């Protein structure tokens, strides 16, 4: 038996399926603003941040307006609490936790 003293996880994307939910939010908010996202939009923003993200969004008409809306939405507790909890868990997460016990 292994003598595990600690386990470290990165929650966003590893333990929980946040990417598909995030993409849907981007699409919904863009539609509300009357924007059409470029085909390569998610390829360009996934995993990016800071200057790289700002540079890309600045190259899209109203991209920074959309980003401002998204920043608020991302940290909106009422939004995240409305999502069905079991749909967030990545496959095998619960089994892994049970095994670690």
Quickly list its features.
mainly alpha
Describe the structure.
It is elongated and about 55 Å long. It is mostly helical and 101 residues long. The protein has a domain at 16-21 and 39-100. Helix 2 packs across helix 5 (63-74). The chain has 7 helices and no strands. The two termini are 13 Å apart.
How does the SSE layout of this entry go?
Blueprint: H1 11-15, H2 19-32, H3 41-45, H4 50-58, H5 63-74, H6 77-81, H7 93-100
Helix pairs in contact: 2-5
Unreliable sequence segments: none
Order of helices and strands: HHHHHHH
Query: What shape does the CA trace take?
Result: elongated
Which class best fits the helix and strand makeup? mainly alpha
The CA-CA distance between the termini, in Å, is 13 Å
Beta content comes to under 5%
Question: So how many helices?
Answer: 7
Specify the helix fraction band. Answer: 55-70%
Average of pLDDT: 82
Major β-sheet annotation:
none
Instruction: Output the radius of gyration.
Output: 17 Å
**Quick one: how many beta strands?**
0
Quick structural overview:
The protein is mainly alpha-helical and 101 residues long.
